[in-house]
């Protein structure tokens, strides 16, 4: 068995194998219908696919808080908090307090991260 997915073709092959195991488990009324070897292979292949998605495809779970999303944007754009504060037109201490959860995001912050960082307005409204 392979230990690392190196190509997109390998990734799709592994997804197809995972799908076959899931179909077999569905038809057998649960994962208990898989043999121990099949269960172990499914777990190993799922981990390989997850690693490929995280490191190559950059598919990550959707963050659940505004702070986490903004922190991801800081890393993605290779910014410091001070540079982000300037970009957003906010004071550095205010930004730091918001990102550390010591202060609630206000309308000016939400508007700035929406317009300057492209964070979805729907996401912001749902997570205030």
Automatic annotation (TrEMBL):
<dbReference type="InterPro" id="IPR010982">
    <property type="entry name" value="Lambda_DNA-bd_dom_sf"/>
</dbReference>
<dbReference type="InterPro" id="IPR001387">
    <property type="entry name" value="Cro/C1-type_HTH"/>
</dbReference>
<feature type="domain" description="HTH cro/C1-type">
    <location>
        <begin position="70"/>
        <end position="124"/>
    </location>
</feature>
<protein>
    <submittedName>
        <fullName>HTH-type transcriptional regulator/antitoxin HigA</fullName>
    </submittedName>
</protein>
<dbReference type="GO" id="GO:0003677">
    <property type="term" value="F:DNA binding"/>
</dbReference>
<dbReference type="Pfam" id="PF01381">
    <property type="entry name" value="HTH_3"/>
</dbReference>
């Amino acid at each position: 068995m392979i230990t690392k997915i190196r190509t997109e073709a390998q990734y799709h092959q592994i997804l197809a194998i995972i799908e076959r195991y899931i179909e077999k488990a569905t038809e057998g009324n649960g994962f208990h219908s898989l043999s121990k070897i099949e269960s172990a292979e499914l777990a190993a292949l799922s981990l390989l696919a997850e690693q490929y998605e995280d490191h190559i495809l950059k598919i990550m779970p959707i963050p659940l808080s505004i702070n986490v999303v903004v922190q991801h944007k800081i890393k993605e754009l290779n910014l410091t908090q001070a540079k982000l504060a300037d970009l957003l037109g906010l004071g550095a201490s205010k930004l730091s307090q918001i990102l550390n959860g010591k202060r609630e995001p206000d309308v000016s912050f939400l508007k700035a991260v929406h317009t300057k960082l492209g964070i979805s307005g729907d996401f912001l409204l749902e997570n205030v």
